[in-house]
């Protein structure tokens, strides 16, 4: 197993730690975050410092990192940071997920228990498919987007970089959700959602604009991955 540092100390980190223990490819040896957790460990993994300590952790011999943070923009920024230090960016795919052999998975993604990735679907670097999320055939997920628990994307749906589709939402076939947009929980998307907006409702309607994020390019995948078996 490859020793791996986890960036994050919350619930998302706990799920990733369990996936790594289940799959057996990566061994979580420590967590870092801006502040120490209350019990000085995360799900049995010791807190070993802050993000500022990452270069020293790399020099100590830990060569793999995973960004276990739900905030899309922060996750993208930290992916770039750990890649520039030299870390291999780990990927977490639960054994209880269902990923098509023809799916294309970028580095640093999380595919949680019960999630489904359909045939010929592409999942961009650093994206999250949360518990029981479903992306049908020929989907395209951009960099560092997040498909929330129980959200369902039909065939040929495109989701832009940094977009967030919240818990229990549904997206009909041939629909696009623009970069950096948020689809509120329980929404039904029946027409394209533009970039940099918040949309919600049944059917989902654009409610307000949000500020476009800074232009930070996520790292180029540093390994080829289709399916963790």
Secondary structure: elements and pairs:
Blueprint lengths: L1 E6 L3 H13 L2 E7 L8 E2 L2 E5 L4 H6 L4 E4 L4 H14 L2 E2 L2 E2 L4 E2 L4 E2 L4 E2 L4 E2 L4 E2 L4 E2 L4 E2 L4 E2 L4 E2 L4 E2 L4 E2 L4 E2 L4 E2 L4 E2 L4 E2 L4 E2 L7 E4 L4 E5 L20
Parallel strand pairs: 1-2, 1-5, 2-4, 5-6, 7-10, 8-11, 9-12, 10-13, 11-14, 12-15, 13-16, 14-17, 15-18, 16-19, 17-20, 18-21, 19-22, 20-23, 22-24
Antiparallel strand pairs: 3-4, 24-25
CATH homologous superfamily heading of the largest domain: Hexapeptide repeat proteins
Q: What low-confidence regions span 5 or more consecutive residues with pLDDT below 50?
A: 221-229
Strand order of the largest sheet: 7-10-13-16-19-22-24-25
- Strand percentage: 25-35%
Count of distinct structural domains: 2
Tally of contiguous helical segments: 3
Question: Gist?
Answer:
The chain is α/β, with parallel strands linked by helices and 229 residues long. Helix content is 14%, strand content 30%.
Summary tags:
229 residues; eight-stranded mixed β-sheet; disordered C terminus; 3 helices; UDP N-Acetylglucosamine Acyltransferase, domain 1; 30% strand; 2 domains; six-stranded mixed β-sheet; Rossmann fold
